[in-house]
Design goal:
With about 375 residues, the protein is an all-alpha fold. Among the domains are: about 130 residues; about 80 residues, no CATH class. The protein has eleven helices and no strands.
Length: about 375
């Protein structure tokens, strides 16, 4: 069944099994070519060993090397293009960070605030009031005219001659105008206070309007910063997700390849052990055949010639029943090591030497184990 993974990291399992089998067969062929059987002795195991300091390097079965979408063959992580794109996008967002806020109205606002805070308290001086000056000029002019009219009327009443009475009447008339002018000062003061108050309120309104515009500008700036922060968070999340997925796929690929490497090595070792067992059995059979055809005493030859197939099979089965099974042998020899095939070969060799087994019986035993390889 095909395994599908992003970036082409996994491949078809069936193809992978064929590749691993091919690697194991190549390793076994090289191992068999390097082995030579010594006459008169059983072949000894010669399996691939790991390299030790000062020793020549021994070729190990290698896993199939496959394209890996940017992940190198030494299992070092290299980011994929999608990760690099996400990283570059994040960097571009970080580089586009808005600068510090620049106010267009800070100087004006500060000036207006100083005017409001440092404004002089209200004080009224009529002689500094332009409106009072206008009224004063009008009342003086009107008073003078009224004084002259009063003096003329008083003189007519006395026969046209000037006298102190006429002057007194005229002065009283003028003074009355001046008193009326002074009577307008409270009203003019109230009007001046109204103007003072209106000017202060207008100054505050202008300040508030300008400050409102300042707050709008700052609000727009904060919106820009907020949009940038949102985009930055999105870019960071995208980069983190892409890298996490990519590195996770790389880790799975690394584990997958390491397992395949181990599988290939184990297969090569197993095939090598099977080959060694086959060689041992074949060698032992050849030895037994030679003994049967050319060696031994005449008495033993006569005995072997008179054995029936049933007798050979019965004696061989009895011998096999007394041997350890492969599981028993492997369980009892975990620490010592050694191969099961070597164990069988030694037992058969000893039985031949001691006469417990005939050559035909030894061949039957070896044929039995050879068929179960």
């Amino acid at each position: 069944m095909a395994v599908t993974q992003r970036n082409g990291l996994y491949y078809d399992d069936e193809q992978l099994r064929r590749n691993n089998t091919s690697v194991a067969n190549q390793a076994l062929a090289g191992l068999q070519q390097s082995q030579t059987a010594q006459p008169g002795a059983l072949p000894q195991a010669s399996l691939p060993q790991t390299q030790q300091p000062g020793q020549a390097k021994v070729q190990q079965p290698q896993a199939i090397q496959r394209p890996n979408a940017g992940i190198n063959t030494e299992y070092g992580y290299t980011p994929s293009q999608s990760v690099m794109d996400a990283y570059n996008y994040l960097q571009s967002v970080l580089n586009s960070k808005p600068g510090e806020y620049q106010s267009r109205y800070s100087d004006q606002l500060q000036t207006m605030l100083d005017q409001i805070m440092n404004r002089e308290p209200f004080q009224y001086d009529a002689y500094d009031d332009p409106l009072f000056q206008i009224y004063q000029d009008q009342y003086i002019l009107g008073g003078k005219r009224a004084m002259q009219d009063a003096m003329g009327q008083a003189a007519a009443m006395t026969g046209g001659y000037g006298n102190s009475y006429a002057q007194t009447v005229g002065q009283q008339t003028y003074n009355q105008y001046m008193e009326n002018l002074m009577g307008m000062i409270p009203e003019l003061s109230q009007m001046a206070y109204g103007r003072y108050k209106d000017e202060g309120e207008a100054l505050e309104r202008n300040y508030n309007m300008l400050n409102q515009q300042e707050q709008q500008d700052y609000g727009r700036y904060r919106d820009i910063v907020g949009d940038w922060q949102t985009e930055r968070q999105l870019a960071e999340n995208t980069y983190g997700t892409e890298r996490g997925f990519d590195y996770g796929a790389f880790s799975e690929k690394r584990t997958y390849d390491q397992q395949n490497d181990q599988f290939a090595k184990q297969m090569a070792l197993q095939e090598a052990q099977l080959a060694l067992q086959r060689e041992q059995f074949e060698w032992q059979k050849a030895q037994a055949a030679r003994r049967s055809s050319g060696g031994g005493s005449n008495k033993k030859k006569t005995q072997e010639k008179t054995q029936t197939a049933e007798e050979i099979q019965k004696n061989a089965s009895g011998f096999i029943a007394n041997l350890q099974t492969k599981n028993e042998y492997m369980s009892r020899n975990k620490k010592e090591g050694g191969s099961y095939a070597g164990y069988i070969a030694d037992k058969v060799q000893t039985a031949l030497d001691t006469g417990r087994l005939s050559n035909n019986e030894a061949l039957a035993v070896l044929d039995y184990y050879s068929s179960r390889k």
